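User: I'm curious whether this sequence folds into something compact or stays loose and floppy. Could you predict its structure so I can see for myself?
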Amino acid sequence: MTTQSKKYTTNITKTNNSWSAEIIRRASAKKNIVSKAQAGFKTKTEATQWAEKELLSFSQKQSALNKRHAEKRQKQNN
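Assistant: Here's the prediction. I'll summarize afterward.
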């Protein structure tokens, strides 16, 4: 199961004899940023599993951070 959204995607690539996985964040319509990457996987399945697990963890951390920032902004405005 691939967990992808408009904001975050995963990219799995093969280089020589190993696989690498990246979590890519869409910063704007024209700009993508690699938020997290890891290389050296022996199989595509390993790379995909790592990417999906990290994407889920990464998005949860970002969501919590965004909520904390929103609460701070709301307190400052009151």
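Summary: The radius of gyration is 16 Å. The longest strand covers residues 32-41.
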